């Protein structure tokens, strides 16, 4: 344990990931599984970005937001999974104090940005389905750029608040984090400082970053489903309901696990449950996004086939 002792308090120089240490068996299998998930997420999201950029028919607000979401998901998984893979193969899975702060900063930034980007996508679908006559005028290029910029800005502001509040604390009890990566609740649980301000900040900001966007999305999809059930033919209705259900599954998984993680007192933090929720929130959701939002989409499939056929033709295959 690397630390500096002074006046009965400890200045932590590094943190140890107890979640990885506690894995006694099956590390090799877990490494293969995580590597497979990361490669699948990277390739799937990269393919969506490539197709959305190269295919003119996909230069619409919907695919602009999907491209942003895919880029976010690649960054999101890259913050945690490569480090987890390295730690699973290491004898002492640790991270420096500065490295922990950096990992948490990007994790909070990207998760916050993704939450607001999902709101932007819900807004786009609402106007496309419920207000089609004004859709082109409202969801223009400038509006899309503003919504994307606001999403990223909210993520950075969220992290810029929580990181100073978290790392001003003293960690004198232990430097062992009951998790696979650096996150706010496990760090608060090992702090010997008063974390009341941190918990109030988590709850207050969480209302604006988590609960409010979540309920906004639910209301938007309620209007969308009402419009679909009222106006669409039976075949189109079934397809639209299936699409909305898939989107809502991702939204509920993302926001549900986030709310569970950050809307509780640190005294209720438990090793097993919170590690499982952390995996759902930080690994499973970014992996599912390309499958649910894009790769099941008929327009994306057709654009991919067109891109592949053009490449074959250009290489003379």
Q: What is the compact description of this entry?
A:
Helices cover 76% and strands 5% of the residues. It contains 11 helices and 5 strands. The chain has helices at 18-21, 27-54, 61-88, 97-130, 132-138, 141-167, 184-189, 196-231, 234-262, 271-295, 298-314; strands at residues 3-6, 9-12, 14-17, 94-96, 176-177.
List segments where confidence is low: pLDDT < 50 over at least 5 consecutive residues. Answer: 1-10
Which structural class do the helices and strands define?
A: mainly alpha
**Biggest sheet, open or closed, and with what strands and sense?**
3 strands, mixed
Please tally the β strands and state the result. 5
Rough outline: globular
Count of helical regions = 11
Could you characterize the architecture of this molecule?
The protein has 317 residues and is mainly alpha-helical. The chain has a single domain, classed as Rhopdopsin 7-helix transmembrane proteins, CATH 1.20.1070.10. Helices cover 76% and strands 5% of the residues. The protein contains eleven helices and five strands; from the N terminus they run βββαααβαααβααααα. 38% of the residues are buried.
């Amino acid at each position: 344990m690397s630390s500096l002792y002074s006046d009965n308090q400890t200045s932590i120089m590094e943190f140890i990931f107890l979640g990885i240490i506690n894995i006694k068996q099956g590390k090799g299998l877990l490494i293969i599984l995580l590597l497979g998930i990361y490669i699948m997420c990277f390739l799937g999201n990269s393919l969506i970005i490539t197709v959305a950029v190269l295919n003119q028919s996909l230069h619409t607000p919907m695919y602009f937001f999907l491209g942003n979401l895919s880029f976010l998901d690649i960054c999101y998984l890259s913050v945690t999974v490569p480090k987890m893979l390295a730690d699973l193969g290491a004898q002492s899975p640790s991270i420096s104090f500065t490295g922990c702060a950096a990992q948490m900063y990007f994790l909070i930034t990207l998760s916050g940005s993704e939450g607001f980007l999902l709101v932007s996508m819900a807004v786009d679908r609402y106007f496309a389905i419920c207000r089609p006559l004004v859709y082109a005028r409202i969801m223009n290029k400038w509006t899309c750029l503003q919504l994307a910029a606001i999403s990223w800005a909210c993520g950075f502001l969220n992290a810029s608040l929580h990181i100073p509040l978290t790392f001003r604390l003293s960690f004198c009890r232990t430097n062992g984090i009951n998790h696979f990566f650096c996150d706010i609740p496990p760090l608060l649980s090992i702090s010997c400082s008063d974390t009341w301000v941190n918990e109030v900040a988590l709850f207050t900001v969480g209302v604006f970053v988590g609960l409010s966007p979540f309920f906004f999305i639910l209301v938007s999809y309620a209007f969308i489903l009402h419009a679909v059930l009222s106006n669409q033919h039976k075949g189109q209705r079934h397809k639209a309901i299936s699409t909305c259900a898939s989107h809502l599954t991702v939204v509920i998984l993302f926001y549900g696990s986030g709310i569970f993680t950050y809307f509780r007192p640190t005294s209720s933090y438990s090793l097993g449950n919170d590690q499982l929720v952390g995996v759902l929130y930080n690994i499973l959701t970014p992996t599912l996004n390309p499958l649910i939002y894009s790769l099941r989409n008929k327009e994306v499939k057709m654009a991919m086939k067109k891109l592949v056929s053009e490449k074959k033709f250009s290489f003379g295959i």
